[in-house]
Design a protein that fits this description.
- Helix 2 packs across helix 4.
- This protein has five helices and five strands, in the order ααβαβαβαββ.
- By secondary structure, the protein is an alpha+beta fold.
- The chain has one domain: 3-Layer(aba) Sandwich (NADH Oxidase), CATH 3.40.109.
- Strands 1, 2, 3, 4 and 5 form a five-stranded antiparallel β-sheet that branches.
- The longest helix has 18 residues.
């Protein structure tokens, strides 16, 4: 099996991270793969905000937990949070960001870095308290956050065989 297919089939969501920092160089490469994702009509109206200050990540997580009535919510305490945002006027914004996140997850996995999709901001990114944090981090006011990538080194092995389900039908 080639390396790309192996990477696709072996990636798993990681929900427990160590305290080991991710290098700036690795984060830059991971984000670059997001930028190279497909973009509807090639609009590329996205912005990628990379947060590596774990206290700032936890401030956002705590505020999101309050808004969602989820006591103790911590976004799994990642070492980095990549926040793709996109112009709310772009009709392809959500799909573009989903493609970017998938590239980010696969790139991270190929580098031995764990990841998990954080979708809680999708419905609350325009809440004034959440938006004030995003604005402080220079996420444009006219952008929506559909999901984020929480990244870190896995606290335990993710090399588990999982049964994946789905229906496949060939029409020949």
């Amino acid at each position: 099996m080639n390396a790309v297919i192996e990477n696709l089939l072996s990636r798993r969501s990681v929900r427990a991270f160590t305290d080991r920092k991710i290098s700036r160089e690795d984060l830059e490469l991971i984000v670059k793969t997001g930028i190279y994702a497909p973009s509807g009509h090639n609009y590329q109206t996205w912005k990628f905000t990379v947060v590596t200050d774990t206290e700032k990540i936890q401030k956002l997580a705590e505020k999101a937990g309050e808004k969602l009535s989820r006591t103790g919510y911590d976004m799994y305490s990642p070492q980095a949070l990549i926040i793709p945002s996109n112009d709310r006027e772009n009709p392809h914004a959500m799909e573009d960001n989903a493609c970017a996140l998938e590239n980010i997850f696969l790139a991270a996995h190929s580098m031995g870095i764990g990841s998990v999709w954080i979708n809680q901001l999708r419905d609350i990114c325009d809440d004034p308290e959440i938006r004030s944090i995003l604005t402080e981090w220079e996420v444009p006011e006219n952008h929506v956050v559909f999901g984020c990538a929480a990244l870190g080194y896995a606290a335990e092995s993710t090399a588990k065989e999982l049964e994946k389900k789905g229906t496949v039908h060939f029409v020949e």
